[in-house]
Specification:
Largest sheet: 22 strands, antiparallel, barrel
Radius of gyration: 31 Å
CATH superfamily of the largest domain: TonB-dependent receptor, beta-barrel domain
Strand content: over 45%
CATH architecture of the largest domain: Beta Barrel
Helix content: under 10%
């Protein structure tokens, strides 16, 4: 009986509620820009004198329901627009009243001068607005999304964008194209390559806290450089402070494979904790000072005093990972509505990682007779890394009448200390049991500075910028020790590990790159009444880039007659590398530097473009052409011990047309189509004949002076749907055709590889991209939102008849990518819970060798090496408590092993083909737990 009464009460209350709802009315409408007719996304419409209101979605639509019958006044506000009042809107029971508004730009007339506010670009709605109104195919992510995912650097951020994946957690693969096919600008200016041996920008250099937004252009356009084919990535740092406050963030983290375990290291310098070496790892006289191998006194002095001779490997328990960030913002209002803003940030992180029991192998042709792998190298590595990142940002803006001026500065420093202990064997000409060690310290510095201006006129706009960028990469005193087992049966030292001549080496490399750039863009908007007529755009860009690469190599040699008989079998650190053994007639340093491994380069890029944006009813055509001239001079050295040189010139002059078409199907739906021509030019390192030994590949890497530029035809079609201001769904199809693409290849000298670069004959890439960012309110889950992007990609690169390479997918291309985020954000709870998932399909990361000879079969192939798919799952939780915010995250919860594999095939005696799997590299990254807090003042 009580239960029946309860149900009756519920039904009665529900009936009363429905009756009241039926007696109420609704106001809805659209808010547009009076001058252009475009919807005003994010405008706020409030019933005057109340707190009832709504925000406009991406189509400028709003809806206020549940209003009692009566007459209301509505207030419409939006940043950069003058407030608007809609008076006397009559609401009737059970009906919907219509109330539209057209807003005018906020202008303050002071002696014929107009002040215009500046739109922020750090929210999901702002980035969504930019993507929707862009004239080309573009994807983006905002700092609001970054805060929700708790990403730590630009690498983690950019992989949230459709079609983007990472190699080594820092190099971008866009639409299946390796880092060399992508271009990166920060704040509208070019950035140098952060790597010595490839064209690549290391995205782990930029802390996430410095980023306002990242936009990835995927179709060519006249105003952007033509040297990109996968993605043109624009990183914007924070200019305008979100609020006048100081915020401090601090977090601690532990990794399940690293912390609370033994961690090996070699003592570094006193400034390692700041991300750079203070000179302790340097060589006396500097990297360019010569060593006369024939001067015994000089050799003895250098051996004893010219280097850091601390080789001892120590053990410790690593401290928890540390992250500290301080951000501050301030704005000063001046006379006549002018304003000065200051936005700054300081970031610091310290982390340790252990990769124990790492398999590291290389295989020869598969042994079909015994149906087993044929190892050339079979090693097990224990690797210990300590990484320090320090960064600072300081941006100043002056917002004036009709004009804005910006001064932007971004400095980041990354230092990594790595020790690797390797055990195993190689079997090329014979079986050699080995033990190796590598001491490696790397520091990288990047600075980006820029002065920029934006000037608004009646019907036109002019913007300009002048920038300077600097990058260096120092590898001071990379030390490698090679020990080999005595295999002479019956010898007194049979089975013992010993060193041979030149098997202890020290390498020093230094890369410095400078870029000075300047650009100007002018836009003329032709207006006829309130209708928008064609918009003309033109501009010019210049860039001067210099690079200086220096390398030195030293070996330890010894005179056995002046040393103990069992000297080579002693402990390397405690018995061999000791002061008592140093001397030109005993154990001494030998300068084996080869000047041909050094180079200098200069590149001048001059560009200009002209374009037209033509509205044709629901269609908008944006077309233009870009002119680029690139002149690169590479100064290489022709002798190993003398600084004689030759300079090789590489000139390219081209026109790059592009067309972008947008068909506005409705306020919420549009269709894009794009075509453009782009290029990919060789970099300094790729055309230099200099060589470098890669310990991870146990191989030499060298350039190819005969490389030429690749040219690419790009086509895109994308459908876009914008359900609201912060929601979007898009589906894209793309196709790319390459002529002479540049690919990595290798030369095999009986199991010893030399990696280099080669122009293939042609290649093609095509694929499909899906991007969904949607609130799940339509499913009855208004507190949940979904972020999903997935890509399917296919590529094929074709080599000419004279090449030793085989046709295959392009290096780094994954057949599929999946990024998914499910977020729970209950209203007014200050809580965000996120579940993030990432998976990539297997992709080529190492090139194999096919038997292309007449009558060749798969039996003689060495297959390509693939990075295998793995599931990466992250859990993030954020809770706001007044000024405080608590953050908890678990990264890579599943902690699946990272695996690199080859898939050899062979035919049996009956002609049937079989496939096997060979694991070339495998390690466990572990799961990382982090707990942090932030506070604002």
């Amino acid at each position: 009986m009580i239960g029946i009464l309860r149900w009756a009460a519920v039904c009665a209350a529900l009936g009363i509620g429905l009756a009241e709802a039926a007696a109420q009315g609704t106001i809805e409408g659209t808010v547009t820009d009076r001058a252009t007719g475009d919807p005003v996304t994010g405008a706020t419409v409030v019933v005057k004198g109340t707190l009832r209101g709504a925000a406009c979605d991406a189509m400028g639509r709003y809806r206020i329901a549940g209003l009692d019958a009566g007459t209301y006044d509505l207030e419409v506000t939006m940043l950069t627009y003058a407030p608007c009042l809609i008076p006397h809107v009559e609401v009737r029971s059970g009906q919907t009243a219509r109330a539209d508004a057209a807003l005018e730009e906020q202008r303050e007339e002071i002696d014929q001068v107009v002040v215009t506010a500046v739109r922020r670009r750090d929210s999901e709605a702002a980035v969504n607005f930019d993507v929707r109104h862009a004239m080309m195919v573009v994807s983006g992510v905002s700092s609001q999304t970054i805060a929700r995912t708790q990403d730590r650097d630009a690498g983690e951020v950019v992989r949230r964008i459709p079609g983007i994946s990472l190699i080594d957690d820092k190099f971008v693969i866009a639409r299946g194209l390796s880092q060399r096919y992508n271009n990166v600008w920060i704040n509208g200016a070019a950035v140098p390559s952060s790597e010595a041996d490839t064209r690549a920008f290391s995205f782990d250099l930029i802390p996430a806290g410095q980023i306002e937004h990242i936009m990835v252009l995927k179709s060519p356009a006249p105003e952007v450089p033509a040297d990109f084919s996968g993605g043109f990535i624009r990183i914007g740092t924070k200019d305008m402070p979100a609020q006048e406050a100081v915020s401090i963030q601090y977090a601690l983290g532990v990794n399940t494979e690293t912390h609370f375990r033994r961690f090996l290291f070699n003592r570094g310098s006193g400034t390692d904790w700041l991300g750079f070496d203070n000179g302790k790892r340097g060589v006396s006289g500097g990297i360019e000072a010569p060593l006369d191998n024939g001067d015994a006194q000089h050799v003895t002095r250098m051996t004893r005093e010219g280097f850091n001779n601390d080789w001892r490997v120590r053990s410790r328990r690593p401290i928890p990972d540390q992250r500290l960030a301080v951000a501050f913002g301030k704005a000063w209002s001046l006379r006549d509505g002018k304003k000065i803003t200051l936005n700054g940030a300081v970031n610091y992180s310290y982390s340790s990682r252990t990769y124990a029991g790492m398999d590291n192998c290389r295989y020869g042709v598969y042994n079909k007779k015994e149906d087993k792998p044929e190892y050339l190298y079979k090693y097990t590595d224990d690797q210990y890394r300590t990484t320090v990142k320090a960064g600072a940002m300081l941006n100043v803006a002056f917002i004036g009448t009709r004009s804005r001026y910006y001064l932007r500065n971004l400095l980041n420093q990354v230092g990594q200390d790595r020790y690797t202990a390797r055990e195993g064997w190689q079997n090329i000409s014979s079986l050699y049991v080995q033990r190796k060690a590598e001491y490696l310290y790397t520091s990288r510095t990047t600075y980006n500075g820029q002065v920029a201006g934006v000037h608004e006129f009646a019907g036109s706009r002019l913007d300009w910028n002048a920038g300077y960028s600097y990058a260096n990469k120092h590898v001071p005193d990379r030390r490698i020790v090679n020990l080999q087992e005595n295999d002479l049966y019956g010898d007194a030292h049979y089975g013992e590990m010993g060193i041979d001549q030149n098997e202890i080496r020290r390498d020093f490399t230094r890369l410095r790159e400078h870029i000075a750039s300047a650009g100007i863009n002018y836009e003329l908007r032709m207006r006829e009444g309130r209708k928008v007529a064609p918009t003309l755009r033109t501009g010019a860009y210049g860039e001067f880039r210099t690079r200086d690469y220096r390398a030195r190599a030293f070996f330890y040699r010894f005179n056995p007659s002046n040393l103990p008989a069992d000297f080579v079998y002693g402990d390397v650190v405690d018995e061999i590398l000791q002061p008592g053994n140093y001397g030109a007639d005993k154990l001494y340093i030998y300068d084996d530097s080869n000047n041909r491994d050094c180079y200098e380069g200069e590149n001048l890029l001059a560009a200009a473009y002209a374009a037209i944006n033509l509205p044709l009813g629901p269609l908008t055509l944006y077309a233009g052409v870009r002119f680029e001239h690139s002149g690169m001079d590479l100064k290489s050295y022709t002798r190993s011990k003398e600084w004689t040189s030759k300079t090789t010139r590489y000139d390219y002059t081209d026109l790059f047309p592009s067309v972008n078409l947008t068909w506005k199907l409705s306020e919420a739906h549009q269709l894009r189509a794009a075509y453009g021509r782009s290029t990919n030019r060789p970099e300094f390192r790729e055309v230099s004949a200099s060589t470098f030994y890669d310990f991870d590949l146990f191989s030499i890497v060298m350039g190819n002076p005969d490389l030429k530029a690749a040219y690419v035809q790009n086509a895109d079609v994308r459908y876009e749907w914008y359900p609201s201001s912060s929601e979007s769904i898009s589906l894209a199809v793309f196709y790319k055709h390459f002529r002479h693409p540049i690919e990595t290849t290798f030369r095999d000298a009986g199991g010893s590889y030399t990696y280099t670069f080669e122009n293939a004959d042609a290649a093609r890439v095509y694929g499909v991209e899906l991007d969904v960012r949607k609130n799940l309110g339509f499913m009855g889950l208004p507190a949940f939102s979904l972020s999903l992007n997935a890509s399917w990609i296919h590529s094929r690169v074709r080599f000419g008849d004279g090449s030793l390479e085989h046709d295959r997918p392009m290096q780094g291309q994954s057949p599929y990518l999946v990024n998914c985020g499910l977020f729970y954000q209950p209203e007014r709870a200050g809580l965000t819970v996120g579940l993030l998932y990432n998976r990539i399909g297997k992709r080529i990361v190492g090139i194999g060798r096919a038997d292309l000879s007449g009558g060749g079969t798969v039996d003689n192939d060495i297959p390509d090496m693939y990075e295998m798919p793995r599931d990466a799952l992250d859990v993030v939780v954020t809770k706001k408590l007044g000024r405080w915010e608590l953050r908890l995250s678990a990264r890579d919860v599943l902690a699946q092993s990272v695996r690199f594999c080859q898939f050899p095939r062979y035919t049996d005696d009956e002609g049937r083909e079989h496939e096997r799997i060979e694991v070339t590299k495998r390690f466990r990254p572990g799961c990382t737990f982090s707990l942090g807090a932030s506070v604002s003042f």
